[in-house]
Amino acid sequence: MDSSLKQQILDQGMDPNTVEQQIQNFKTGFPFLHITGPATPSDGIKVMSDRELRNYIHTYPLKAAEIDVVKFVPASGAASRMFKDLFSFLDGDGDISKSPFVQKFMDKIEKFAFYEDLNETLKKQGSSVHDCLDRKDYKSILAALLLDDGLGYGNLPKGLLKFHRYPDERRTPAYEHLIEGVQYAVGKGNTVKIHFTVSPEHEQKFKEEIDSILPDLSKKYGLSFQSSYSTQKKSTDTIAVTMDNEPFKEEDGTLLFRPAGHGALLENLNDISADLIFIKNIDNVVPDRLKEETKNYKMAIGGLLLEIQEKVFQALHALDTHIQAETVKAAEEVFTKDLGAKLPSDFHSKSINDQAAFLKGKLNRPIRVCGMVKNTGEPGGGPFWVKENDGSQSLQILETAQIDLDNPESKKHFQAATHFNPVDLVCGTRDYKGREFDLMQFRDMNTGFITEKSKSGRELKALELPGLWNGSMSGWNTLFVEVPLITFNPVKTVNDLLRDEHQ
Asked: How far is residue 393's CA from residue 102's CA, in Å, rounded to a whole number?
């Protein structure tokens, strides 16, 4: 690699060796994972009884009040994909008969929480929504909604769009996440801490939105709020290559680096100092009337994590004090029964010291509890058992691309999967001595993704880092818990806001 290219890599905050490895990954691709079966309610997914649920709802808030709790919300995604069909219509011939999606949007337009703002915008332009509908001037409505000289929704992040209507206010997803924080993320000092990962160009708007809400919320609930923000680091971008796996150069000769997917946020998560971190996507929120089950199950997965973590810590302290049959057996029980992991077949033939070393290595890791919903055909990752290099088996969230569907055995396991990952996680990122784990040490760099894109009319290959809840957490201890489908209500298109769950 010549010196000018090396300098560009250094200017990006990256190590040239990392870029060389990325180019190598384009050439070789990523290996499929060895799955041994889907995680199901009979093998790997815990289904809570009503009694367990009631217990955690009671005990979790008491424990949370003693510790640092943070709600971590990936919120950097632009809303442009939500409006893809509307943009296509705006750029097209204006024939609504060709677009059932736009027809539905127009038919139900008064049901959207942003309707009043849209109408006001059009009035300033000398018209109104109903005037435009009467004239069948649908493009003026869409321009007022999407373009920067109107509401500018096409260029805003999802977190700042008005999603839900209440009698006295309209709420954005960012606002709804603050309300959720009141319900299950109140930590030490009666404080709700919420962290948004945002795009640099939207950070100021996020701060203005949150700062306008917090004084009233604080007064209403008698709580302190701490909001913080971070952006995806340039150093986590990945190099793009041509279809021949050579570095892709722009017309001016500079290298092209691209954001590396949500796996890049592992560094942002690594910077969070807390005892308990909830992770939930920005668009997965519901109005107040439906929040109860979400709140209950968040308390349940938080309570379960704290309970299991305590057992893990006790086992590790005991192994530090004495390595003997009793302490090794207790640690083994925590690993196999409480964490539900599977030992390698040769484990019991090892010496007691080797067993202890193996268990210490397995137990002293970050821990996460992940809510899983029954699969309803949504795209995305699912829960599986994976065979590790040391012969043990661990629970992992896998994307379809990580599974070899040409292998009949793997395909059978994939088709037998019953559940889906709605990105509903709670994480413990401190060790048994209270020190923060370096989360970068627990990811599997062999679990990235290669996709094909284009730039300035030229095809290229792009590389995504191991996904935040996939390969980036590959080395964590993982528990799966079945949660109700009502806890998963993403908004992928604007018309999803018309579903009953968002009305």
From this structure: 48
